[in-house]
Structures are given as C-alpha cells and as structure tokens.
Amino acid sequence: MEKGQSQRKANRGMHRFVLGRPFVMLVAPILLSVLVFNHLRKKKKSAEKESSEVASAPSFVSPIPARGGSHRYDIFLSFRGSDTRKGFTDHLYRSLVNAGTVPICVFRDDKNLPIGEEFGSQLLDAITQSKISIPIISENYASSKWCLRELIHIMDCKKSVSHMSRPHIVLPIFYKVDPSDVRHLEGSFGKSFLSRKKQFDEKDIQEGKRALEEVSYLSGWESEKIANGHEGELVERVIKTVLSTLQRDFQLDVTKHLVGIDDHVNNIRNWVDTPASHARMIGIYGMGGIGKTTFAKVIYNELSDDFVHRSFLPDIRETALRKGIPYLQDLLIKEIQRNEHQVCIVDDGINLIQSTLKGKKVLILLDDVDHQDQLNALARERDWFTTGSIIIVTTRYKAVLDQSEFRVDYMHELNELDEVHSLLLFKRHAFRMSHCAKDFEGISRDILSTMGGLPLAIKVIGSYLYGKTDRKVWQDVLKKLRSEPDRDVQKTLKISYDALEPKHKEIYLDIACFFVGEDSKFAMYMWEDCVFYPNQGIEELKLRCLIKIGDCGRFRIHDQLRDLGRNIFCQGQRPERCLKLWFDEIPFKARPLARVTHGSPFFFTLSFSYV
C-alpha cells in the first residue's frame, strides 16, 4: 500500500513537471513583453521630457575625415533643430561638404540617434575635436538645454590652451535674431529662454548666460543684414570664410631651411597685387636643383588665401612619361571640381578643363613642365580661366615658356646662391642652426666652394654631414667632392642632359671638358665642320639652363654642370686619360684635339697633340 501511495505521488509530480513546461513556455514571452513595454514607455516618457532640450540630437558626420593634426572634424554645427534643421542648416551643411577642392568634414546633429548621457559625452567630444564651431543662433536656440551646453563647451574650447596647433575658432551666425537680444536675453529670443528656464539646472542657466553674452560679441553674420535676408548669399559668405580659415591645412609642404627667397617672393607678390584684366601666368626657370619647385610652392602658399579653387600638379615631366597627359588632365579637373569624369584622350581633357574652370578664379601650379604639349594640354589659353586666375609654371627648359600660347606675364630666372646665403643654408642643414663651431667654419667654406651655390648640392651634403663630429669624415667628404661629383646631385642634373639631341650632347660635353671660360668662336669652327649645327645647339643648351654666354662671348657653366659633363665623358674613357685632360699646363688649343672627335675630315683622334 505504501508502495502504491509513493507511486501515485511520483506520478502527480511527473504530471506537474510535464504540464509545467508548456505553461512556462506560454508565460515567459508574456512576461518579457511586459518588461519590454515598461522599458519602452519609460524611454518614451524620458524622450518626451527631453525632446525640447535635444531637438537637434546627436551626430551625423560628413563621410570625409578631417585633415591632419589631432582634429577629427573641420566644422561642428550647433543649431536648434526645430528652427533650422530642414532649411538653412541643411543648405549650409551641404554647401560646406561640397565646397573647395578638398572635402570638408562637417559634424552635425541627427535626430534619429538615441538620447542619453552617452550621447552628451560624444557630442562634447566632437566639439573638442573640431577646428571650427559654427553656432547657428536662432530664436529658440536658448530654449534647448543641449544647445546651451554645446555653446558653453564651444566657448570654453575657444578660451582653452591645449596641445592643438591653434585655438578653437568660433564663427557664429545670428539667424533672424539680433546679437544684442542674445547678449541681454531680450526680445523673442529672451522670451524663449525664460519660457524654459524653470527646467534648466542652475549651473546651465548661469553658464549659459555667460556663453550667450560672450558669443554675442564675436564677429559673425547677421542673416537679416546680408543681401536683405537672402540666405544663399549668407551661405556663400560663410563658405568663403571657412575655406580661408582652413587654409593652413591646404598649404604645400616647404622646407623650413629657406634662405635668400624673401625678396623674390615680395617682388612677385607686389606684381600679383597690381590689377589685371585677364588670367596671368608666372614662369620660373633655371637649372636642375636650383630650387624652382620650392620657390614656386612658397609663392603658391603666399597666394592661396585669395583662391577657393587651387591645384598643384607636381613632377609633370615624370608623370606624363609614366602615366600620360590625360592622367594629368584628370587630376587637374578633380582637384578643381570633384566629379566622376575620367579623361582618356587629350582632346577630351582640354574640353573638360575649359568647361570645369569656366567662371572659376583658380590658382594652379604646374611643376617641372618640359614639353610644350604638356602646357598646352593643361593651360593653353587665357580664355580658359577667369580674370584674376594665376598659373605658375616651373621648368628647366625656357623654350616652354617662350613658346606658350598663353603668353607668360612674369618671367623669373633662379640663379645660384651667393656665398653668404650658401653658408647659411649649409649650416641650417649640417648643424640645424644658423651658426657652427669655429673648428668647422673653415672646412664648411671649403666644402661649399665645390658646390657653386647650388641649393640641391648644399642640402644633400649638409644633411649627410649632420651629426658627424669627426673632422676626418668632413675632410674625406671634401677630398671626394674635389675629385668626383655627388651621385644624388648628378642624377638630378643629368635629366636635362638626357633630354638633349645626340649632337647637342656632344657640344655640351665639349664645353664642359674644354671650353669653360673660353671664347665661343674657336669651338664654333669645329662644330660647324662636324655638322653639329652649333648655333642651334648653343641656343638649346641656353634654353635648358645648361650653359650661359658671358661677356665677350665666353662660355659659362655652373661648376656642378661642368662636373656632370666631365663625369659623363670619362665614363667611356681611360681614367688616367681623363685626369690629364684637366691639367692647366695643357695648352687650350690642344684640348679640342685631345677629345675623341666626331669623324670630321679635319679633326682626328689625337692624344695630347700640341698646336
């Protein structure tokens, strides 16, 4: 009997267990739904309570990251969503994102993101990580707790001294409100603030009043006083100021060790400031390594504040060789105006450049142009550009500028540095300062004497010697420079030599090896007999900045270019023979006969025959 009772109890327990499973499965979703409903109701209630304070809730960021430094964003927009979100703020946001040659990264609020303390922290961090804040102060701006907190943090960032490269910039827009009403909390702006005052913390009230007063004194824009309230004009003015303010991020990289350049830059700056009725071109020419690109970049940076549309195309000679001229045209178009066009042929590129640049005041730097086709494809005619546009061209080949259909308005030749500036540049690279120890003063001058004031050579050798305190190393460098040119410097200079025709190369080598400082008429007879067309050849060498004709028709050539020619000549000769060629005791008239001549019936391969 006991066994039967225990069995019945076990069965009842089993029944309860079996019946309990579907019961739990039924109840659990109900309980979960109740919990979720209560959570959502609380969240909705909280959202309704805060909706007026957070009408412009958290972030939406333009897809392009900000450039450089510790900043994540270029612009932070602070605004009252119910006042301007779908109107002026949206117009301004889209114009900012699409302005300029480089996209601007703009942080603005998005009402679809969740509300809470985490949002507040992220929002304030976004202000800290922005370069510029633009508070759009509208009628109901001060009625929002979060707008006040944003403004408080914005003004605090403006005053704070941090690790950032420059202070936080605030550019307020007083949208249909008077700054004096913002300052004194009067008018409809003041009424809006007072209507919500009871819902603010005392700290928010006091700090909010302080921030509103401070921002009211800042230089900004009053929407009703610009073009009779036309918002398009207001947006254009804001864009122009923003781009100018961000200009530092668009500066081209230029070495800090600049010397002897200020007067040249000032001359060009003064010329640019004179009124003109058309687009203008600046041509900068000179031998390789003389500093043309650096000089042009300094001018570009100096002028860039005056231009919204800018483009820098470096190494055009090399890029055209590797990727073609259409690639360069494509780069130019995309830098001036971002679009999806891809240039495949030169003619299409020309048409696109004309249509893209039409009506735009542009600043363009075309670096290292070495052929007329390159310049014609990128900037052939003045009519392609609006009045006020500036085109800067650097080249080793002056003929590119002389033959330009655009017609160069300002031609500038860069020459070697004088002794004072050479020494200063050398010290800045070799010692990272403008002076050196007396023990190294003499040998520094001796080393400089081998460089002929060529900035490239000074930079290369000076940088190599930086940190080397053993005078024996300096002495070895001096001995080496006196016997053979620096390889890196020669590689740069040889580009101009490689561009010559074969017969012009021979003329250049003759001058470098035998005729430096000599009257040109003696060599002309030989070259004419060799059918080298010497008049044309000499003109070509001058245009490529490889030689000059000095007083009394004597050949002049830079020491580094002289060494280049002699080094090229010696590559195909016996070293001992080459060394003998440069001995002063060899009579001048014997030197042309010492070279391997060109098959002329009057000049044969002779070794050191004396006339």
UniProtKB/TrEMBL annotation:
<protein>
    <submittedName>
        <fullName>Disease resistance protein L6-like</fullName>
    </submittedName>
</protein>
<keyword id="KW-0472">Membrane</keyword>
<dbReference type="InterPro" id="IPR042197">
    <property type="entry name" value="Apaf_helical"/>
</dbReference>
<keyword id="KW-0812">Transmembrane</keyword>
<keyword id="KW-0433">Leucine-rich repeat</keyword>
<dbReference type="InterPro" id="IPR027417">
    <property type="entry name" value="P-loop_NTPase"/>
</dbReference>
<feature type="transmembrane region" description="Helical">
    <location>
        <begin position="21"/>
        <end position="40"/>
    </location>
</feature>
<keyword id="KW-0677">Repeat</keyword>
<keyword id="KW-1133">Transmembrane helix</keyword>
<dbReference type="Pfam" id="PF23282">
    <property type="entry name" value="WHD_ROQ1"/>
</dbReference>
<dbReference type="InterPro" id="IPR035897">
    <property type="entry name" value="Toll_tir_struct_dom_sf"/>
</dbReference>
<feature type="domain" description="TIR">
    <location>
        <begin position="71"/>
        <end position="216"/>
    </location>
</feature>
<dbReference type="InterPro" id="IPR000157">
    <property type="entry name" value="TIR_dom"/>
</dbReference>
<dbReference type="InterPro" id="IPR044974">
    <property type="entry name" value="Disease_R_plants"/>
</dbReference>
<dbReference type="InterPro" id="IPR058192">
    <property type="entry name" value="WHD_ROQ1-like"/>
</dbReference>
<dbReference type="Pfam" id="PF00931">
    <property type="entry name" value="NB-ARC"/>
</dbReference>
<dbReference type="InterPro" id="IPR002182">
    <property type="entry name" value="NB-ARC"/>
</dbReference>
<dbReference type="Pfam" id="PF01582">
    <property type="entry name" value="TIR"/>
</dbReference>
